[in-house]
Design a protein that fits this description.
The chain is an all-alpha fold. Among the domains are: 106 residues, no CATH class; 190 residues, no CATH class; 174 residues, no CATH class. The chain is 55% helix and 1% strand. It is extended. Belongs to the RPAP1 family. Pfam families: RPAP1_C (PF08620), RPAP1_N (PF08621), TPR_RPAP1 (PF25766).
Length: 1202
């Protein structure tokens, strides 16, 4: 006996019980289960006639078996039943067969509308058309009646001969029905009815008739009586309609004019035999409305008016007006019956509804359209056009990924990959990877300020202080505890709006992808989409990369199925499973770059053997295998730079590297006509060899083996570039950049030195620099520059899911950040020969580079940078190489001859504001060359030492931060170290000192006098060169901070004189300027809380200083909001007793504080109270202002004047 399943038992228990049942059944074949599920097929639907006919057959058989033959009874019935009664009974039987014998409610109007007039006809006769009594209106005729009238009007000569009229319609009822079209079936039914009647007596017939009448609905009996009366009337009336026989013939072409082409059924009538259609006596316009053509005139949008976005099946946004669509687009399948039926396409709400349909094809179509929308969105074409609910789309797609249907998995995985895996970013990253120092990979985590430094001189610490100076000035405690991570307490929707990648990981996406790849084993595109999602997850940060690596089942599935060794069968196969895939290798490379520990964990012996096998494979190299080898070379480069591959493993790769160099020397085509993939493969080979030298594993034996073919390849490719008029493909520039990178490194650091490349350095390279192709490259520098463009990128187009920013938003549409002729990497590697020149080749190369054709475009480029350097785009990940080139140019002796001192300082200042932690060395070099040089900045010795010390402290802290982790990754946004107002950095220390004194913290080490003097002098010299470092309001705030030192050293005569000159100069420059005191500046506080701190400090330590007083009075001018005057004259009226200054120190003069006369009653009353209570000194500026407004104002009634 078997037990039932109990709660808590799993699938394993079900399988165990099934095995026990099967074993018992094999022992005893008669053993049966207690219950069996039987699938009952749905019966086939039968017509009313077929059901009645089967019922009659059953009744006929039963009656024949029960009733004995009785000749006398048959003769009696034949004698008593006449022909008229027999006809009546037959008609009633016929009507009963069409009616409801059980007596259910029947609407006789419905029967008349469905069946129409029932007319019997003879066997083989022609059924006359039914005449309907309808109003004689042209609009009421049917479509087919209009067609017939059009044929009759074509001419009587073509009309067919008329058939003779039917004189006796009653003859058509002799056993034939107009409802049953089959003559044999009609005769069979008629015979069955006659046999049934012949076998019954008259009393039985009457009894059955009465029984039938009692069982029927009275309404049905009335309906039958009416039909019988109508038949009698037609028999009594001699006039009968004449029916013409219409022979089938081809409709004349002129008959098409009966219906206009815009009629909904025009096309349907042309393609069908309309004569076989029944009861088309009326045109039901409301039922045909969905077939109508689109209105030619739709509502026009007003400028700036928004409308609901609609997309086609490819995700393309359709215009609001169909006139804007291309003429060759067939959009008929895109029209719906719902909202906006005149517009083609599907809205997002409708696509969401289709994506939840029970029909698989509808779900696939909806998900495919959403995938197209996301692809176009990530390319930037929908920016500033529509706003997509990305979080809601994500949840829809993630739910769709849980369906195991292969077709749905394919389209949903593709949509998810297009959402997370930015194809444009990845293509550009792979495009530039073979350039020098471009092996760094971006991390795409959300930027959160987690700087917990307690250093009071650090920017992060000072910015926290400045951030407290907002409109709420009640507390100024900068020691704010870091907020705990609240993501664990967020629900899924909140997390998706904050960090979409964390929300994706919360949905167990790694386990789901592992199940799909291991168990479902879908088609190729699904596998590719899953790997793309894994690449994007791995790029986020080192924590998510470790999560991927810790999924051992997932990594084993990828290594086993997508990175096996190549076999002859797999080399020609088109399937993903069982052959190496370059996307899987790219995933491994991204994981390796995240951290050294991950690289060691993945670089197993089996994996290294597979890499060696891929590099040595030469049987059948095609595009797919070339991509595999490119990724293998990139992985080898990363492992070498991280120190994972030792010298012994590299020696095992040497024969493959030497063989590839020889192959490229003979087969690589440098010209544009050659395959670009081969040139990219050659560049990857060169930079991998350079990485072996940088890591120290390429010893002298290896260099002897590789440098000779390397020199031959470099000479060959550079010579071909010299003969070309222009370099039109980016792979050409990349290959030349790799050549210069390899030659430069081995010539300086190789065991054989520059002698291995003597011919290249003395002849080939100088000739290339003089060639027309290289001159064209230099001239493309300004045009293709990233940091000179005047628009932004798409890094934070959707804040919860950042991207690298490979797309720039231009007014004319999206553009790639790197163009095909972007020459920066080539020029940077070439300028490295000038930066650290080689003794043998220095003269020839310098002569070639110093020609005017090269230096003049570079000088124009630097001039443009001094005026239009885009600091936002300078933080783009792809702008790092260009910033390196700018540093090389600024470090070149003699470049200042092409720039004036003003242009040079403007360029240096803007350049320093763009450098990130990764460029800490460049920052230090520029500071020492320009900022700390007497040639450009004249400061006294103490001020110069203070400036140098403070700047170097900033740089050295980032030297440490730049080398803290053993990885090959950088943040996707290269945030600058120095803010735009970095020359005022030391004044922030004074404010910091003031706030910490409030909180009883010790003072800073620098003297207040030194800080103020150095800062104001340095800024003044920069401003004299035409630099505008801060806005007028920001400069006003810094001038106020200069008076807030703890020691009140502004009273020192020398410093006071300096401040006096600075204020007079500031007032003169902004005499007509109107300050916006409500403005908020990044990393700074608002003006309002700082001003009230300034007033409090004036009350405590101003000593009535006139410079201090003039700054307090500045917001009290009449052109500004009276809230400043109300608060000062009410809460700080005691400060007005000590406030006084010369009228020359008032910005705009005294008139700016007197006119127009104050009309605020409360403020005028405050003026009167201060005068009456003698809170202001007579003759002071405050007394003049209060007396003028109180005496001249008409806002209040006054009993006295002052």
């Amino acid at each position: 006996m078997f037990n039932k399943l109990k709660p808590g038992e799993s699938e394993e228990d079900v399988l165990r019980m099934a095995a026990e049942f099967n074993a018992e059944r094999q022992k005893n074949p008669n053993f049966q289960p207690a219950a069996t599920v039987v699938r009952v097929e749905k019966p086939v639907g039968k017509s009313l006639f077929a059901q009645k006919r089967e019922l009659n057959k059953l009744n006929n058989k039963s009656s024949l078996s029960d009733v004995k033959p009785n000749t006398e009874q048959q003769n009696f019935r034949e004698a008593t039943v006449d022909a008229g009664k027999q006809k009546v009974l037959l008609d009633e039987i016929h009507e009963n067969m069409l009616g409801d014998i059980r007596g259910t409610k029947i609407n006789h109007n419905l029967i008349e509308n469905v069946l129409g007039e029932i007319v019997e006809r003879k066997e083989g006769g022609i059924r006359p058309p039914i005449e309907f009594q309808q109003p004689k209106q042209e609009s009421g005729k049917s479509l087919f009646a209009r067609k017939i009238m059009a044929k009759e009007s074509a001419g009587n000569t073509n009309s067919p001969p008329k058939a003779p009229a039917i004189d006796n319609p009653s003859e058509t009822t002799a056993g034939h029905s107009a409802i049953v079209q089959d003559p044999k079936l009609t005769q069979e039914i008629h015979s069955e009815n006659l046999n049934l009647l012949n076998q019954m007596r008259e009393e039985d017939i009457l009894a059955e008739q009465q029984k039938l009448l009692n069982s029927l609905d009275p309404a049905l009996i009335k309906l039958l009586a009416q039909k019988r009366e109508q038949q009698k009337n037609r028999l009594a009336t001699p006039k009968t309609p004449k029916v013409e026989l219409i022979e089938p013939q081809a409709l004349p072409t002129s008959s098409n004019e009966a219906l206009s082409e815009d009629n909904p059924a025009h096309q349907l009538i042309q393609q069908s035999d309309e004569g076989n259609w029944l009861n088309f006596n009326l045109i039901e316009e409301h039922k045909l409305a969905w077939m109508r053509d689109i209105p030619s005139k739709m509502g026009q949008l007003k400028p700036g008016e928004q409308f609901n976005a609609r997309f086609d099946w490819k995700g393309v946004l359709l215009p609001h007006n169909t006139e804007e669509m291309p003429q060759n687009v067939d959009e008929r399948e895109l029209y719906l019956h719902g909202e906006e039926p005149d517009r083609p396409g599907y809205s997002l709400q409708e696509l969401f509804r289709l994506a939840r349909s029970t029909v698989l094809q509808q779900r696939i179509s909806a998900f495919g359209s959403i995938a197209g929308i996301l692809s176009i969105y990530n390319q930037g074409f929908y920016d500033q056009v529509l706003s997509l609910p990305v979080s809601k789309i994500f949840f829809l797609l993630r739910f769709g990924l849980d369906d195991n249907a292969p077709a749905q998995l394919e389209v949903v995985s593709r949509a998810l990959a297009r959402l997370f895996y930015n194809e444009t970013d990845e293509v550009v990253l792979d495009h530039i990877y073979e350039n020098a120092y471009c092996h760094w990979q971006p991390t795409l985590q959300l930027l959160v300020d987690n700087d917990e430094s307690g250093d009071s001189t650090s920017f992060a610490f000072l910015q926290r202080y400045m951030a407290l100076l907002r409109t709420n000035s009640k507390a100024f405690n900068a020691d704010v505890e870091e907020e705990t991570d609240t993501r664990l307490s967020m629900d899924d929707f909140q997390l998706a709006e904050t960090d979409l990648m964390s929300c994706l990981l919360r949905t167990n996406i790694l386990q789901r992808i592992c199940f799909i790849l291991r168990s479902v084993k879908p088609e190729n595109s699904t596998v590719e989409s899953c790997i793309k999602m894994l690449i994007r997850i791995a790029r986020t940060n080192v924590q998510t990369a470790k999560q991927v690596v810790e999924e051992h089942d997932l990594i084993n599935v990828i290594l086993t199925n997508f990175l096996p060794q190549i076999t002859p069968a797999s080399a020609t196969s088109t399937l993903f499973y069982g052959q190496p895939q370059y996307m899987a290798l790219k995933l491994i490379r991204v994981l390796i770059c995240q951290h050294l520990d991950i690289a060691k964990q993945l670089a197993t012996e089996t994996f290294i053997e597979n890499l060696k096998h891929f590099l040595f494979y030469r049987d059948d190299i095609k595009g797919k295998l070339i991509r595999v080898q490119i990724e293998v070379l990139r992985i080898v480069r990363c492992l070498l730079l991280l120190g994972v591959l030792d010298r012994d493993l590299f020696k095992q790769l040497l024969p493959a590297l030497r063989q590839m160099l020889d192959w490229h020397y003979n087969h690589c085509v440098f010209d544009v006509g050659g395959p670009a993939l081969i040139r990219q493969h050659a560049a990857a080979l060169l930079v991998a060899i350079v990485a072996s030298g940088e890591s120290g594993v390429c010893d002298i034996e290896a260099q002897k083996l590789l440098l000779e073919p390397l020199h031959n390849c470099c000479c060959s490719w550079t010579h071909r570039a010299t003969r070309a008029n222009a370099l039109k493909d980016y792979t050409q520039l990349t290959l030349l950049s790799a050549v210069l990178y390899a030659v430069g490194w081995f010539a300086r650091h190789g065991y054989l030195g520059a002698t291995s490349f003597r011919q290249f350095l003395h002849n080939i390279l100088p000739d290339f620099v003089r060639s027309a192709g290289f001159i064209a490259c230099v001239q493309q520098l300004t045009r293709g520059s990233i940091i000179l463009r005047r628009f932004s990128d798409r890094r934070n187009s959707h804040a919860p899911l950042p991207n690298v920013g490979a797309v720039l938003m231009h007014d004319l549409g999206p553009q790639l950040v790197v163009s095909d002729t972007y020459p920066v990497q080539l020029l940077s590697n070439l300028w490295a020969f000038v930066e650290t020149p080689l003794e043998d080749a220095q003269k020839q190369l310098l002569q070639a580079l110093m020609q005017p054709a090269v230096l003049e475009p570079l000088g124009e480029y630097l001039k443009e940078l001094s005026q239009h350097l885009n600091r936002f785009l300078a933080s783009n990940f792809f702008a790092r190489s260009e910033l390196k080139l700018v540093h090389q140019l600024l470090s070149t002796d003699g470049i200042e001859t092409y720039l004036t001192n003003t242009q040079l300082l403007q360029l240096v200042y803007s350049y320093l504001c763009c450098l990130s932690t990764a460029q800490a060395r460049q920052m230090k070099s520029i500071f020492e060359r320009y900022i700390f040089s007497d040639k450009y900045v004249q400061l006294d010795k103490k001020s110069l030492e203070l400036l140098q010390t403070s700047c170097m402290e900033i740089v050295y802290t980032h030297f440490i931060a730049d080398n803290k982790e053993p990885n090959l990754t950088l943040c996707y946004t290269q945030a600058p170290v120095l803010p735009s107002d970095w020359p005022y950095f030391q004044l922030r220390l004074i404010l910091n000192n003031y706030l910490q004194n409030v909180q009883q913290h010790p003072a800073v080490i620098y003297s207040e006098n030194q800080v103020v003097r150095m800062t104001l002098t340095f800024v003044e010299q920069l401003e004299q060169q035409g630099l505008q470092i801060v806005s007028p309001l920001e400069k006003l705030m810094y001038l106020m901070i200069s008076f807030m030192g703890p020691d009140s050293q502004f009273l020192d005569p020398e410093l006071h004189q300096l401040l006096h000159g600075q204020l007079l100069q500031f007032y003169a420059q902004n005499a007509t300027h109107t300050f916006n005191f409500e403005a908020t500046h990044e990393d700074k506080g608002n003006f309002e809380p700082l001003y009230y701190l300034f007033v409090n400090h004036f009350e405590a330590a101003s000593y009535g200083d006139e410079l201090f007083s003039s700054l307090v009075l500045l917001p009290l001018a009449q052109k500004y909001d009276n809230k400043w005057r109300r608060r000062i004259w009410s809460e700080h009226v005691q400060a007005m007793r000590f406030l006084n200054c010369d009228e020359s120190l008032l910005i705009g003069g005294l008139a700016a504080y007197l006119e127009p006369v104050e009309q605020e009653p409360s403020l005028v009353q405050l003026y009167g109270d201060a005068l009456q209570q003698k809170l202001v000194r007579p003759g002071s500026i405050a007394h003049k202002i209060a007396r003028h407004h109180f005496n001249d104002s008409t806002a209040i009634k006054k009993t006295t004047s002052f």
